[in-house]
Amino acid sequence: MPYLVHTEHDREEMLAALGVESMEDLLIDIPTSLRVDRLNLPDGLSELETMAEMHGLADRNRVFPDRLTFRGGGVYRRFIPTAVAAVTGKPEFYTAYTPYQPEASQGTLQAIFEFQTLIAELTAMDVANASLYDGATAVAEASMMARVQTGRDEILVAGYVHPEYVEVLRTFSEGRGMKVRRGDEPNPRTAAVVFQQPDFLGLLVDARGLTERAHAAGALAIACVDPISLAIIAPPGEYGADIAVGEGQQLGLSPSFGGPHVGFIACSKDLVRRLPGRLIGSSHDSLGRRGFVLTLTAREQHIRREKATSNICTNHSLCALAASVYMTYMGEAGLRDVADVSFRRAHSLAERLGKLPGWQPLFPERQFLNEFPMIVPKSRQVMRRLSRKGILGGLEVGRWFRELKDVVTFTCTEVNDPAAIDQLVEALSA
Amino acid sequence: MTEPLSFELSRAGVHEPRLPAAGVDAPGPSDLLPREMLRQNPPELPRLSEPETMRHYSRMASLNYSISEEFYPLGSCTMKYNPVANEAAAALSGFADLHPYQDEEFAEGALELMWKLERALCEVVGVDRVTLQPAAGAHGEWTALRMIQAYHRSRGDRRTEVLVPDSAHGTNPASAALSGFEVVEVKSGPDGRISLGDLESKLSPRVAALMLTNPNTLGLFEREILDVAEMVHATGAMLYYDGANLNAFMGVCRPGDMGFDAVHMNLHKTFTTPHGGGGPGAGPVGVKAELAPFLPHPTVERSNGHFKLDHRRPKSIGRVRSFYGNFGMLVRAYTYILAMGGDGLKQASLDAVLSANYLRKQVQGVLELPHAGPCMHEFVASAHNLAPQGIRALDVAKGLLDRDFYAPTIYFPLVVPEAIMVEPTETESKATLDAFATALKDIVQEAKTNPERLHQAPVRTPVGRLDEVGTARKIGAYLSGQSDDPILRWKKPSN
To answer: What CATH code would you report for A66-79+332-429?
Structure first.
């Protein structure tokens, strides 16, 4: 029992101090009919055995190398600077609690204040919160903000928004008085138009047009954005979206089979009081020293209880920290380079894939950044053949969209070097 | 000591991080995209060299208390030691580098881990199935209520109310309300336990569920839990278990055996995944068989020795999160369970209860103890006895910060005035508990001799008490257009 600290002697001393004979005297409130003798689980293992077991499980997964991974769909391989893990691995950060006592939590509070600023800058919005669970729940929480702000009940999902985000939004909507509809024509019941830029297929949408249409109908515009893309394409704040949300995994977090990652949410000034989750503000003590505090807590569940419009308690602080380190390390120029290299390589790959017999781009008239859809004959077999050759090929999106049978999206980032692209094209040409 | 913001440390001309050249002959964004699609104004991100970046974050780290260095007696939060082996396991490439959309046959180890963790959690809490998808405790609560709602609806029963004790955590009523339920409060009796009389009067065919924490937020075991379960089930309602206090009785008794139909767990409390300064956590939900059809999809199933994701669950409430939950936290929790085993988990709970009772005894006569013992894994004291000196629970908390302890949970549960809620956990030694008790005695002494010093506390932390009211007021001024400083972010000085 590696993590227990009491010796038998300690236990005896403590029981004696309590004036009781045994632990049983402390458990008298539990009805005897409820007592179990032991759990039907194996006894504990040594660290050596524990880690051997964990290695065994890890080894039963096949890890495709970064450079030969061309699959995205919401989770991407990116270069992660060593600095990120060096910071998030500091026990002062990862073993700290939610910063309820600000005087003893300035490290976490300042880091998250910086995160809020970084996200606000990146999205060109007024204010961002301390983070949410993931991109999917961020879309759902933003929709709830729109529901409360407008008093309307319909959430309109325009275009190819990540199918799992839409599923989560539907689950959230039940009970929150929201109805989810697909389409791009808002009506007087529409609380918000939700779109993804670039969309789930990687294609750029007319974000400005969708935002204007939403506003013309008296609805809010919710832009779900790729944070890396904002180094080069117009951010939600530049086209007037009311709420910007997204998944921050690309900002320094490993794929980890889908989590933990980090959702972000930013909004315009008039919606700040409707933001869910934690907000950190700048403050000072009686000596005039600057410090940071959790603020506007009157919005939150522990004050408002059943009147709260979100039940979120904590955020994904450590993941937000990772994203902050990433953005600080990269800076604006680094982010732009990452986006630019990814863009060029993806366009090179798209051109070469388009020359394969029978392959053609889906929606060739539309622009993309670093993920794009191709129509691939016999896509299932092709992807299986690639995996046998050690390549994680594109994502078959037909499993979510019936009309997209045999459509595969491919992703290229800075980790897919030119030789890896050659290798993929050769494997497909063979 | 304070640290400037990264934005304030930023200097123009600092080297950019070096990235590989594209190495392909292809156009760039500005060659292909129309101008109106491109960003007009670059974001104001800091420019720091790597050495400066690392020092900036190291300095910030030094401003934090953390479980690695200090005792966190935070009631209801179960701040135990976070095993470093957990971190090593989660960082294994076979887990960390796994793409969520890899074919299942290439992710069998991950699915097997999820399946085994589900089985282990089922055994600990006494249920039939568990969903690992919820990302946090509150998320799990809400997921459980949605399943209970779906269950009732599937029987043509549209129940509209959820009962919540007055001592419950704030997320309980919020989660119920966000599932579309009306929240009805049930009172605690004078002994701090749920009042059966009041419960009886609130139960009706309109009630979908009672949400209960056991031991309750006062650290007391609900002795009449079997009667409660019978009463609730007799009206056709379900019993929901808030797992915040599960650390009290692993291997001693099980919520499922008490009659709970849905049980949420906090892997970041009971199962030692780190708190991360406020997440990520994980909030799995266990259910009895009758609720299993409503679990979020996908579930992990085993057939012919292989593990698969089951997306075809027609009665499922749907997804509550993208992918499969906070997988990295699941890896950590499973590592912990393997290391501890059934025998270790039981001893952990026994030690937690022993430590809480021991510390409670040390506090007797120092602070008020409004409820009779024994307690389970935590206890609630009150600083009400210091009112004549003008000392409040908040002052006691701040005084502890000056004595190298984190503060206990204060002003919760709401039913105890000047509440100070203490949960020592099994990973704090007797010496630490003794030192903590000594610090409390010292504070109470100071309350009598020099209350003003306690009002000034903390003085040994990087900053003193912060002007939270002033901060909220300044944000109000910004939001109403009277000021340009958002307070919620740094803004480039306009000059």
So the answer is: 3.90.1150.10
